[in-house]
Amino acid sequence: MTVKCEKCGEELLGAVNRCWRCGTKVELSGSASPPPPMADAGEDVVVAELAQPLPRTDARPRPPGTPVFRTRPSNPRHLSAAQGGAIAALVLGLMTTVASFYTALAAIPAALGLALGAWGLFSPRRGPAILGLLLCFLALTIASFTGAVGLYKQAYGHAPWEAPAEPAEPEF
Ligand SMILES: [Zn+2]
Protein backbone atom coordinates (compact mmCIF):
# COMPACT_ATOMS: atom_id res chain seq x y z
CA MET A 1 0.00 0.00 0.00
CA THR A 2 1.45 3.33 -1.00
CA VAL A 3 0.54 6.80 0.22
CA LYS A 4 1.32 9.92 -1.76
CA CYS A 5 2.66 12.96 -0.03
CA GLU A 6 0.29 15.88 -0.36
CA LYS A 7 3.10 18.41 -0.68
CA CYS A 8 5.67 16.88 -2.99
CA GLY A 9 3.88 13.87 -4.40
CA GLU A 10 6.49 11.41 -3.22
CA GLU A 11 5.22 7.86 -2.91
CA LEU A 12 5.67 6.69 0.65
CA LEU A 13 5.82 3.04 1.47
CA GLY A 14 4.94 1.25 4.65
CA ALA A 15 4.07 2.66 8.03
CA VAL A 16 5.43 6.19 7.76
CA ASN A 17 3.76 9.16 9.35
CA ARG A 18 5.96 11.78 7.69
CA CYS A 19 7.27 12.30 4.18
CA TRP A 20 10.97 11.43 4.07
CA ARG A 21 11.58 14.04 1.39
CA CYS A 22 9.79 17.17 2.52
CA GLY A 23 8.79 16.37 6.07
CA THR A 24 5.07 16.88 5.59
CA LYS A 25 2.91 14.82 7.87
CA VAL A 26 1.14 12.03 6.08
CA GLU A 27 -2.25 10.74 7.13
CA LEU A 28 -2.28 7.00 6.90
CA SER A 29 -5.71 5.49 6.38
CA GLY A 30 -4.81 2.25 8.05
CA SER A 31 -2.74 3.64 10.87
CA ALA A 32 -4.08 2.51 14.21
CA SER A 33 -2.59 5.15 16.48
CA PRO A 34 -2.01 8.78 15.47
CA PRO A 35 1.67 9.76 15.39
CA PRO A 36 2.91 11.82 18.33
CA PRO A 37 3.73 15.45 17.57
CA MET A 38 7.36 15.83 16.72
CA ALA A 39 9.54 18.49 18.27
CA ASP A 40 11.46 19.13 15.07
CA ALA A 41 8.41 19.99 12.99
CA GLY A 42 9.24 22.69 10.50
CA GLU A 43 12.98 22.18 10.71
CA ASP A 44 15.08 22.08 7.63
CA VAL A 45 16.64 18.65 8.08
CA VAL A 46 14.50 15.84 6.79
CA VAL A 47 14.73 12.57 8.63
CA ALA A 48 13.23 9.40 7.36
CA GLU A 49 11.34 7.64 10.06
CA LEU A 50 11.88 3.95 9.68
CA ALA A 51 10.20 2.53 12.71
CA GLN A 52 9.51 -0.70 10.89
CA PRO A 53 11.43 -2.30 8.03
CA LEU A 54 9.97 -1.10 4.80
CA PRO A 55 9.44 -3.16 1.67
CA ARG A 56 12.15 -2.11 -0.80
CA THR A 57 10.01 -1.84 -3.88
CA ASP A 58 10.64 1.74 -4.99
CA ALA A 59 12.73 2.48 -8.04
CA ARG A 60 15.56 4.27 -6.25
CA PRO A 61 17.28 1.85 -3.92
CA ARG A 62 18.53 3.21 -0.63
CA PRO A 63 20.31 1.44 2.15
CA PRO A 64 17.66 0.56 4.70
CA GLY A 65 17.63 2.51 7.87
CA THR A 66 19.59 5.43 6.45
CA PRO A 67 18.33 8.90 7.33
CA VAL A 68 17.90 11.04 4.28
CA PHE A 69 19.47 14.47 4.44
CA ARG A 70 19.61 17.15 1.85
CA THR A 71 23.06 17.30 0.37
CA ARG A 72 24.70 20.68 0.73
CA PRO A 73 28.24 21.93 1.25
CA SER A 74 29.21 21.48 4.85
CA ASN A 75 31.13 24.75 5.12
CA PRO A 76 30.46 27.15 2.23
CA ARG A 77 32.69 29.91 3.58
CA HIS A 78 35.70 27.59 3.80
CA LEU A 79 35.03 26.30 0.31
CA SER A 80 34.79 29.75 -1.24
CA ALA A 81 38.04 30.74 0.46
CA ALA A 82 39.73 27.68 -1.00
CA GLN A 83 38.36 28.67 -4.39
CA GLY A 84 40.10 32.00 -3.94
CA GLY A 85 43.29 30.04 -3.25
CA ALA A 86 42.87 28.18 -6.51
CA ILE A 87 42.39 31.41 -8.47
CA ALA A 88 45.28 33.11 -6.66
CA ALA A 89 47.51 30.14 -7.48
CA LEU A 90 46.54 30.42 -11.13
CA VAL A 91 47.27 34.16 -11.24
CA LEU A 92 50.53 33.75 -9.32
CA GLY A 93 51.54 30.90 -11.62
CA LEU A 94 50.97 33.00 -14.73
CA MET A 95 52.85 36.01 -13.32
CA THR A 96 55.78 34.11 -11.88
CA THR A 97 56.22 32.01 -15.02
CA VAL A 98 56.79 35.22 -16.97
CA ALA A 99 58.86 36.86 -14.23
CA SER A 100 61.04 33.80 -13.70
CA PHE A 101 62.66 34.38 -17.09
CA TYR A 102 64.06 37.65 -15.74
CA THR A 103 64.78 37.05 -12.08
CA ALA A 104 65.26 34.09 -9.79
CA LEU A 105 63.33 36.03 -7.15
CA ALA A 106 60.15 34.87 -8.90
CA ALA A 107 60.68 31.59 -7.05
CA ILE A 108 59.35 33.22 -3.87
CA PRO A 109 55.83 34.04 -5.15
CA ALA A 110 55.90 30.80 -7.11
CA ALA A 111 56.39 28.86 -3.88
CA LEU A 112 53.51 30.83 -2.38
CA GLY A 113 51.43 29.92 -5.41
CA LEU A 114 52.24 26.25 -4.88
CA ALA A 115 50.89 26.45 -1.35
CA LEU A 116 47.77 28.30 -2.49
CA GLY A 117 47.23 25.79 -5.29
CA ALA A 118 47.49 22.89 -2.86
CA TRP A 119 44.90 24.66 -0.71
CA GLY A 120 42.70 25.23 -3.76
CA LEU A 121 42.70 21.51 -4.48
CA PHE A 122 40.21 21.17 -1.63
CA SER A 123 37.76 23.49 -3.37
CA PRO A 124 35.34 22.72 -6.19
CA ARG A 125 37.67 24.62 -8.53
CA ARG A 126 40.22 21.87 -8.90
CA GLY A 127 40.96 22.78 -12.52
CA PRO A 128 42.40 26.26 -11.84
CA ALA A 129 44.16 24.89 -8.75
CA ILE A 130 45.91 22.15 -10.74
CA LEU A 131 46.78 24.55 -13.54
CA GLY A 132 48.11 27.04 -11.00
CA LEU A 133 50.20 24.31 -9.36
CA LEU A 134 51.68 23.32 -12.70
CA LEU A 135 52.45 26.94 -13.63
CA CYS A 136 54.04 27.64 -10.24
CA PHE A 137 56.12 24.48 -10.55
CA LEU A 138 57.18 25.58 -14.03
CA ALA A 139 58.01 29.04 -12.67
CA LEU A 140 60.11 27.50 -9.91
CA THR A 141 62.00 25.44 -12.47
CA ILE A 142 62.63 28.42 -14.73
CA ALA A 143 63.54 30.63 -11.77
CA SER A 144 66.09 28.14 -10.49
CA PHE A 145 67.51 27.92 -14.01
CA THR A 146 67.61 31.70 -14.20
CA GLY A 147 69.27 31.81 -10.81
CA ALA A 148 71.84 29.21 -11.84
CA VAL A 149 72.61 31.14 -14.98
CA GLY A 150 72.94 34.31 -12.91
CA LEU A 151 75.39 32.60 -10.57
CA TYR A 152 77.31 31.28 -13.55
CA LYS A 153 77.45 34.77 -15.02
CA GLN A 154 78.71 36.17 -11.73
CA ALA A 155 81.37 33.49 -11.48
CA TYR A 156 82.56 33.36 -15.06
CA GLY A 157 81.38 36.66 -16.51
CA HIS A 158 79.34 35.10 -19.31
CA ALA A 159 76.35 32.86 -19.77
CA PRO A 160 77.03 29.12 -20.04
CA TRP A 161 75.98 29.02 -23.68
CA GLU A 162 78.04 32.06 -24.64
CA ALA A 163 81.65 32.30 -25.50
CA PRO A 164 83.76 33.99 -22.81
CA ALA A 165 82.86 37.63 -22.84
CA GLU A 166 85.22 40.26 -24.01
CA PRO A 167 86.91 41.85 -21.00
CA ALA A 168 85.91 45.32 -22.21
CA GLU A 169 82.17 44.59 -21.95
CA PRO A 170 80.79 44.61 -18.42
CA GLU A 171 77.60 42.52 -18.26
CA PHE A 172 75.87 44.50 -15.57
ZN1 LIG B 1 6.69 15.16 0.65
Describe this structure in words.
This protein has a domain at 82-156. 40% of the residues lie in helices and 3% in strands. It has three helices and two strands, in the order ββααα. The protein has a two-stranded antiparallel ribbon. Helix 2 (107-120) runs antiparallel to helix 3. It is rod-shaped and about 100 Å long. The termini are far apart. The relative contact order is 0.10. The structure holds zinc ion (ZN). Zinc ion (ZN) binds next to loops.
SSE layout and pairing:
Elements: E1 2-4, E2 11-13, H1 76-99, H2 107-120, H3 126-156
Antiparallel strand pairs: 1-2
The structure holds zinc ion.
Residues 5, 7-8, 10, 19, 21-22, 24 line the site of zinc ion.
